């Protein structure tokens, strides 16, 4: 993939961009083999990749510059701003939105936040697109509510110009630190969630719920988990760290009893809405801490699927899983290093199969799916 920003030395986020994707996949597989060294793997499945460019469904843009000439992109470590609206990882559908947002910032009087001076209002613009119908969610991350009246007054013109903006909100992040979002979300549209669909499974994207940024590879990840589960004698399943329910909703059948646990209430609202749309009566999603839920339960399922953040599931949950000993564990990880550490804390299990998903092309990062079977 060619990137003018990389060639000019303006952005180095895609550190592997100069290598063909085939070489990138080989290096990632070598890394995974190294991390799982000493852990017998019965089946190494072929890695899964997707498009090299235009694959992201989300842009997280730092707003800098002036109110008259805002820059959308990032800040270098020395504080120098970089406009990334031409990043080839974004689909072509993002370009007209970025182009319209720059004059809109001036029209709405949203002064970009200056980190060094701790002044200004607009910190970030967060844009998400649904591949189902091209609908978009736009979030303005503001330092305070001071500009909300101006923002509301200016929005009708933007909405007329960009009818694909289905969900618009203001997130209030008052802390003078590089934190992406705050707790307060103020909706500026009646619609509050984007409809999405992977593999015939309805999903929903809300402002403060995690959703994968590479839809093509995420779709393959979910369908693979579903295929693996369908080969197992499972009627009772936990989906821990479930997010919007992507894994559980794919794996569930009308007969299966499934409990999904995620600490973010917004994500649980999405998962519950999807379960209702599918007409599945035995799916129950709860906004709880996954480790606390598991260790307090005495109703042992046949399968536990975990999809933790980068830190992994940790020693406490590994210890409990070892003691409760479900017949099967499926581990989905965006950090194979912590996954390998966790699997070593599950000595009663063997790795039946493992598969790499290239969720983050042109970087060293990747996603992994592993099926563990009780010995």
From TrEMBL:
<keyword id="KW-0949">S-adenosyl-L-methionine</keyword>
<keyword id="KW-0489">Methyltransferase</keyword>
<feature type="active site" description="Nucleophile">
    <location>
        <position position="334"/>
    </location>
</feature>
<feature type="active site">
    <location>
        <position position="334"/>
    </location>
</feature>
<keyword id="KW-0698">rRNA processing</keyword>
<dbReference type="InterPro" id="IPR029063">
    <property type="entry name" value="SAM-dependent_MTases_sf"/>
</dbReference>
<dbReference type="InterPro" id="IPR030391">
    <property type="entry name" value="MeTrfase_TrmA_CS"/>
</dbReference>
<protein>
    <recommendedName>
        <fullName>23S rRNA (uracil(747)-C(5))-methyltransferase RlmC</fullName>
        <ecNumber>2.1.1.189</ecNumber>
    </recommendedName>
</protein>
<keyword id="KW-0408">Iron</keyword>
<feature type="binding site">
    <location>
        <position position="307"/>
    </location>
    <ligand>
        <name>S-adenosyl-L-methionine</name>
    </ligand>
</feature>
<dbReference type="InterPro" id="IPR010280">
    <property type="entry name" value="U5_MeTrfase_fam"/>
</dbReference>
<comment type="function">
    <text>Catalyzes the formation of 5-methyl-uridine at position 747 (m5U747) in 23S rRNA.</text>
</comment>
<feature type="binding site">
    <location>
        <position position="241"/>
    </location>
    <ligand>
        <name>S-adenosyl-L-methionine</name>
    </ligand>
</feature>
<feature type="binding site">
    <location>
        <position position="87"/>
    </location>
    <ligand>
        <name>[4Fe-4S] cluster</name>
    </ligand>
</feature>
<comment type="similarity">
    <text>Belongs to the class I-like SAM-binding methyltransferase superfamily. RNA M5U methyltransferase family. RlmC subfamily.</text>
</comment>
<dbReference type="InterPro" id="IPR030390">
    <property type="entry name" value="MeTrfase_TrmA_AS"/>
</dbReference>
<feature type="binding site">
    <location>
        <position position="3"/>
    </location>
    <ligand>
        <name>[4Fe-4S] cluster</name>
    </ligand>
</feature>
<feature type="binding site">
    <location>
        <position position="262"/>
    </location>
    <ligand>
        <name>S-adenosyl-L-methionine</name>
    </ligand>
</feature>
<keyword id="KW-0004">4Fe-4S</keyword>
<feature type="binding site">
    <location>
        <position position="212"/>
    </location>
    <ligand>
        <name>S-adenosyl-L-methionine</name>
    </ligand>
</feature>
<dbReference type="Pfam" id="PF05958">
    <property type="entry name" value="tRNA_U5-meth_tr"/>
</dbReference>
<keyword id="KW-0411">Iron-sulfur</keyword>
<keyword id="KW-0808">Transferase</keyword>
<feature type="binding site">
    <location>
        <position position="11"/>
    </location>
    <ligand>
        <name>[4Fe-4S] cluster</name>
    </ligand>
</feature>
<feature type="binding site">
    <location>
        <position position="14"/>
    </location>
    <ligand>
        <name>[4Fe-4S] cluster</name>
    </ligand>
</feature>
<keyword id="KW-0479">Metal-binding</keyword>
<dbReference type="InterPro" id="IPR011825">
    <property type="entry name" value="23SrRNA_MeTrfase_RlmC"/>
</dbReference>
């Amino acid at each position: 993939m060619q990137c003018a920003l990389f060639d000019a030395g303006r952005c180095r986020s895609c550190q592997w961009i100069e290598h063909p994707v085939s070489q990138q996949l080989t290096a990632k597989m070598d890394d995974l083999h190294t991390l799982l060294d000493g852990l017998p793997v019965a089946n190494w499945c072929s890695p899964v990749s997707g498009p090299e460019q235009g694959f992201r469904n989300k842009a997280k843009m730092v707003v800098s510059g002036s109110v008259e000439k805002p820059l959308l992109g990032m800040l270098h470590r020395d504080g120098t701003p970089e406009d990334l609206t031409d990043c080839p990882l974004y689909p072509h559908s993002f370009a007209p939105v970025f182009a319209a947002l720059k004059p809109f910032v001036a029209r709405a009087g949203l002064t970009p936040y200056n980190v060094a001076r701790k002044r200004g209002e607009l910190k970030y613009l967060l844009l998400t697109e649904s591949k189902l119908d091209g609908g978009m969610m736009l979030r303005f991350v503001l330092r305070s509510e001071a500009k909300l009246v101006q923002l509301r007054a200016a929005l009708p013109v933007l909405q007329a110009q960009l009818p694909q903006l289905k969900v618009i909100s203001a997130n209030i992040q008052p802390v003078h630190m590089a934190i992406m979002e705050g707790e307060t979300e103020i909706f500026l549209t009646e619609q509050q969630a984007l409809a999405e669909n992977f593999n015939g499974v309805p999903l929903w994207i809300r402002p403060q719920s995690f959703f994968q940024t590479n839809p093509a590879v995420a779709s393959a990840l979910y369908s693979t988990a579903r295929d693996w589960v369908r080969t197992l004698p499972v009627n009772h399943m936990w989906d821990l760290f479930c997010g919007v329910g992507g894994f559980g909703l794919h794996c569930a059948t009308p007969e299966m009893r499934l409990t999904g646990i995620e600490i973010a209430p917004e994500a649980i609202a999405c998962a519950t809405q999807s379960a209702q749309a599918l007409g599945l009566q035995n799916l129950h999603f709860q906004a709880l801490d996954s480790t606390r839920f598991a260790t307090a339960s005495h109703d042992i399922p046949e399968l536990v699927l975990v999809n933790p953040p980068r830190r992994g599931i940790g020693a406490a949950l590994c210890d409990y899983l070892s003691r409760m000993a479900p017949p099967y564990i499926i581990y989905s990880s965006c950090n194979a290093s912590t996954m390998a550490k966790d699997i070593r804390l599950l000595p009663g299990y063997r790795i039946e199969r493992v598969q790499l998903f290239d969720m983050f092309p042109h970087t060293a990062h990747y996603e992994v799916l592993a099926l563990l079977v009780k010995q």
